[in-house]
Design brief:
By secondary structure, the chain is an alpha/beta fold. Helices cover about 40% and strands about 15% of the residues. It contains nine helices and seven strands, in the order βαβαβαβαβαβααααβ. Strands 3-2-1-4-5-6-7 form a seven-stranded parallel sheet, with helices on both faces. Helix 1 packs across helix 9, helix 3 packs parallel to helix 4 and helix 4 runs parallel beside helix 5. The protein starts with 6 loop residues before the first strand and ends in a 15-residue tail after the last strand.
Length: about 260
């Protein structure tokens, strides 16, 4: 049991199609104890979805943009477990005017919301959970969408993901001496609620499976969830500051060229 005796915090479980759900399922199958979080109306949705997991798990309320809620979750986990072995940061949000080809017209207020929720919150959550991890180390994993290029319609969320990748490297630098690994998983597109909420999302998904050498199923988050579980395990004890691509190999392929007549 790869994650036996591991105690993990999993954020972002909203539907059975979410990557966080696949990660939670994999972690439970591999022996971990987990607690889920969401906030506001999302808590009741997560509680309903959690019933589909192989074991009963608790759901705590936590908005990562509210430091007091991070502190409350930390205190609850300290009381319950004493320490945790890691967490999954599966949190991202951008207002609609920050997506869909509106890059040049997006106001700062919307950009700030996207960056705070999707990138800065990883640092906030890491600092908040640090008292529960600093004695014996552990693993922090987040979810990325490769920010090395400018994607159609992704706009300021792409900038936010670039920030997330950079935050990953700086956290790896600062938390490594405490035995804490920090990595992000760059997943291929999955038709989650978040993905469907991006205007023109099909521009990214439609040809992904054709170009990825292993193929890609936009309805199956399982490969990404399994990679998250691996990174939360001790088998990844020499890996930190990395962007791990789980996208069928799409990221490694060059630009398609028109064939001459």
């Amino acid at each position: 049991m790869l994650l036996e005796k591991k105690r993990l915090l999993i954020t972002g479980v909203l539907t059975p199609q979410s990557i966080a759900f696949a990660a939670a399922e994999s972690c439970l199958d591999l022996g971990a104890e987990i607690v889920l979080t969401n906030f506001g109306r999302g808590v009741s949705l997560t509680e309903k979805v959690a019933k589909r997991l192989p074991q009963e798990v608790d759901v705590l309320e936590m908005d990562v943009n509210v430091p007091e809620q991070i502190d409350a979750v930390r205190d609850e986990l300290a009381s319950r477990w004493g320490a945790i072995d890691g967490f999954l940061h599966a949190i991202a949000f951008a207002p609609t005017d920050a997506l869909g080809g509106n890059f040049l017209n997006t106001p700062w207020e919307s950009v700030a919301t996207a960056v705070q929720t999707s990138a800065f919150s990883l640092k906030e959550l890491a600092v908040g959970m640090l008292p529960l991890m600093q004695e014996r180390g552990g693993s922090i994993v987040s979810l990325d969408f490769d920010a090395a290029v400018a994607w159609p319609i992704y706009d300021w969320m792409g900038v936010s993901k670039a920030g997330l990748e950079s935050v990953t490297r700086y956290l790896a630098r600062d938390l490594g001496p405490k035995g804490i690994r920090v990595n992000t998983v760059s997943a291929g597109p999955i038709k989650t609620i978040a993905g469907k909420g991006i205007p023109g999302f099909e521009q990214i998904t439609d040809r992904w499976a054709q170009r990825a050498p292993l193929g890609w199923d936009v309805h199956d988050p399982t490969p990404v969830g399994r990679t998250v579980a691996f990174l939360l395990s001790d088998l990844s004890d020499g890996i930190t500051g990395e962007i791990i691509h789980v996208d069928g190999g799409f990221h490694a392929m060059g630009t398609e060229l028109e064939r001459p007549e």
